[in-house]
Design a protein that fits this description.
Layout lengths: L19 H15 L2 E3 L4 E5 L4 E6 L2 E5 L4 E5 L2 E5 L4 H4 L5 H20 L8 H9 L14
């Protein structure tokens, strides 16, 4: 590999620069500029996506800056369909996810009735329970003392 123009000295080997460490350093420097602070003892973080999947972070590193309205979640994650992790994230579901869950139950029930082979698995009772779910609404208590 020539370093200059015609008649210049050739280098014996090509230097390959690694960028994996520099990416981490740039990220850390940017986070320092934002003045983020860690949130300790975070067990999990769940993100409910619009395509009815859940992005789950187990033992994430969470940092925040309230002035910049910024929360950073770092760590290994897995992306699974909502129906696969329903039992683990049920108490975290909002109104939109409950509505999606009811739609999935109706769709699943429609597939059950249109299939030619009928098998009794006891799942119909679960579907009826899902249709009758009421969403608990927490009211803010006003205490004026």
């Amino acid at each position: 590999v020539r370093t200059g123009g015609k008649g210049s000295v050739r280098r014996k080997k090509k230097v390959i620069r690694k960028s994996s460490n520099s990416d981490n350093l740039k990220m850390e420097q940017t986070l320092k500029k934002l003045n983020v602070r860690p949130i300790p003892d975070m067990d999990e973080a769940n993100f409910f996506m619009s395509d009815k999947t859940v992005m789950r972070f187990l033992k994430p590193k969470v940092q925040h800056n309230m002035n910049a309205n910024t929360i950073i979640v770092q760590g290994d994650h897995e992306r699974k369909p909502l129906k696969d992790v329903l039992s683990q994230v049920y108490d975290q579901l909002g109104k939109d996810q409950i509505g999606d869950l009811k739609d999935m139950a109706k769709m699943f029930q429609g597939q059950q009735t249109t299939s030619t082979t009928t098998t009794t698995t006891g799942g119909e009772e679960d579907l009826e329970d899902l249709e009758n779910i009421e969403i608990p609404v927490e009211e803010e208590s006003k205490t004026e003392e």
